[in-house]
Each structure stands twice: as C-alpha cells, then as structure tokens.
Design brief:
Layout (H helix, E strand, L loop, with lengths): L3 H5 L2 H5 L4 E10 L5 E12 L5 E7 L5 H17 L6 E6 L8 H15 L8 E4 L6 H15 L20 H18 L9 E5 L3 H12 L3 E7 L2 E4 L6 H10 L6 H5 L4 E4 L10 E4 L8 H9 L4 E3 L8 H10 L2 E3 L1 H4 L1 H15 L6 H25 L6 H19 L4
Parallel strand pairs: 3-4, 3-5, 6-7, 6-10, 10-11, 11-12
Antiparallel strand pairs: 1-2, 2-4, 7-8, 8-9
Helix pairs in contact: 3-15, 4-5, 6-7, 6-13, 6-14, 7-8, 10-11, 13-14, 14-15
Bound molecules: glutamic acid.
The site of glutamic acid (GLU) has 10 residues, from strand 3 and helix 13.
Length: about 400
Amino acid sequence: MKYPEFAEHKIIQRICEPERQIIFRVPWQDDSGETHINRAFRVEFNSALGPYKGGMRFHPSVYLGIIKFLGFEQVFKNALTGLPIGGGKGGSDFDPKGRSDAEVMRFCQSLMTELYRHLGEYTDVPAGDIGVGQREIGYLFGQYKRVTNRYESGVLTGKGLNWGGSRARREATGYGTVFFVQEMLKARSDSLDGKTCIVSGSGNVAIYAMEKAMQLGAKVVACSDSGGIVVDKQGIDLDLIKQIKEVERRRISAYSEEKKDARYIEDGNIWHVPCEVALPCATENELTGNDAKKLVDQGCMAVAEGANMPTTPEGIRVFQDAGIAYGPGKAANAGGVATSALEMQQNASRDSWTFEYTEARLEEIMANIHLNCYETAREFGASGNYVVGANITGFLKVSKAMVAMGLI
Ligand code: GLU
C-alpha cells in the first residue's frame, strides 16, 4: 500500500463528507409585485488548502445533489491549480431566463442578505457559473458591501475590471481549456493548427474556447445552446455570437437569420458534426456513449471539457478505448478558478495586472496541470490517462494537507 496513513486517518470517509452545507430560502418580488420563493445552497466542501472557492449556479435544475457533485469536483480541480484554494459550490433553482435586470438584482440582494454571514475573503469566496456572470456578481458584491460595511474585494471573483476584477478572468475558462488541448496535442507531436473543431454551448466558456482555438489556427464549425445547434462550414463568426449572446442575450437561432449560408438545426446533436477536436463547454452529461462513438467514428482525435463532467462514464470509456486524447473537466477547465485565485492575489495586494501578464500566468498554470496529470498517470501505470492523472494528483494534494492538520 502506497499511503497507509490515508486509511489510518479515514481520509476517504472524511473527504466525501462536506465540511458544511447551507440551505436557505430566498424570497423576492417580480416586477409585477408577485412574490416568489426560491431555494439556495452553499456547500462548503473542503478547506484543507485554502478558503472554500467555487461558483454559484442559477438554473431551475439546481438542487442539493448537483451542488454537492460540483463541489466535490471543485475540491480536486482547485487542488490541481497549485494555488491556495479549497473547494465549494453554491447556487439556486432561480431561473434567470426572461427576468429583467431589476428582478435579477432583487433576487441577488435577497440571496446575499442570508449568504453574507457565511462568506469572507479568508472563509468562502464564490464566483460565477451557469446563469451567474458579471451582472449577478455585481449585485451580489454590492449587497455584501452594504450589509457588512466593508469593501472586501477578495470575497467574490469574476468582478468588473473597474471594481476589483482581473483582466483575463472572463476569458480564462475557455482559454485554459484550449491551452490544455494544445498541451495534449503537443505530447502527441501535434498541434491545433488547421484542425476542425466543434464547441458545445455558447456561454462564457464556449465563446472564449472558440476565440482561443481560432487564435491558435483551428477552424470552429459549430456551437449550440439549449434550443439547437449552429453549423457554419465557413467558420463560426465569433463577433456575431458575442453580439447575440453577450449583448442581446438572445437564442443562437438568431445566427442563421444573419448568416444565410449557416444552418440552424433545432434540437440538433452537435456531436454528429464531423470534427478533429471536440470541446464540450455546456453542461454535465451532455455527451453520451453513443455521442462519443459517433465522434470517434468520424475522426475526432482530442476532447477537452470546458464544462464540469459533460461526458458520461460510458462516453469516457469510448474515448479511452479508442486511445484518443481526453482531458477531463477538473483538469481542462481549471483555468477559470485558477484565474479567480489570481484575482484574489491582485485584490490582496491592491494591484491589477496587465492582460498579457495574467494570460501568461494562466498558460503556465495549464501547462503545469497537464504535466502533473501526465506524469502522475505514468507513475501509477496508466500512461496517457488524464482521468487517473488528474484524480490522483488532486487527491494527493488535499489528503496530505488533511493528514498534516490532524483530525478536524
Ligand atoms: N464555476 C467555475 C468552475 O466551475 C469557476 C469557479 C471560480 O472561479 O471560483 O470552476
């Protein structure tokens, strides 16, 4: 046995039990004066390496089970970054779709009126996730500042650039995923240059994964939202996607209204579009065993997850049996939370770094995560298996710290 102290200290049993779970009521009024009640969660999973850190998700599918699995992933992902952050996750079953800015603001203020007492730059530092972007972080930060009477920048990340945010944070998850693909391909003496690429989703992660893939010479031919997929053989027009999604907050079907030679397929399956590189950047379980087979049959050679656990266990098995490069989310999408930790560093030193410097730090962090996963997999007899590499690397970091800190 390699680490007998982990069994002796019951590390598995302790690591699987969140340190603290908070569930609370969020009452708010819509623009017509009607009252709504939502349920919100914060699962403070593990603080062996630093303050709890992880996003808040606003989506009708949110319940305790989702937040717990995301929080568990976050513990090991955050450990992989090599930065001093523990793991946590939160969210609410609030559906922001179709809500006005004023309604979103009232919801965020009500949520923070309870959550603030559990947060702090040394305690728990939330950020964005699905349904939570800079607008929501702004309302949450404003209410935290008001009820605590403290300008505590490091209590939330994903802030705006003129009020404590970090350059390159918005781009970081997507860029990081593509840096990870670049490293996986480099390890196979290959590169992204000239590769055909598909990216599921069209939110923050997907948009910046597309941007970096294009910058590195790939051609992105498809992306999606929950209504359908857009296929553009000429290469996706990213400015148009940004306009539709970031500015107008509309459905992606609008793309084909503007671009006549692109195709919008309602309820289409993006994994049926032939590609060499596939980047799932939407949500969990979006890529099944059958989807994986289709991808491999049509010549896909690399998959990296910008979303959290988008590939089902059957899908992962298909990729691994086919011997293609597969980067699991906890390694491939760690660039987002890593840059959140860089935002915390800037807040702590009351400094703000250039885009170039921050992006260079991100690229270096992703290269290190890749190297650590690659070498750990080899050490444990699973060469090329990034799932084994990522899980063991993250687990060892957290477990060793827990042993050192005694039975708490
Ligand atoms: N929600 C992102 C994730 O899944 C970012 C978390 C953060 O920046 O704290 O890693």
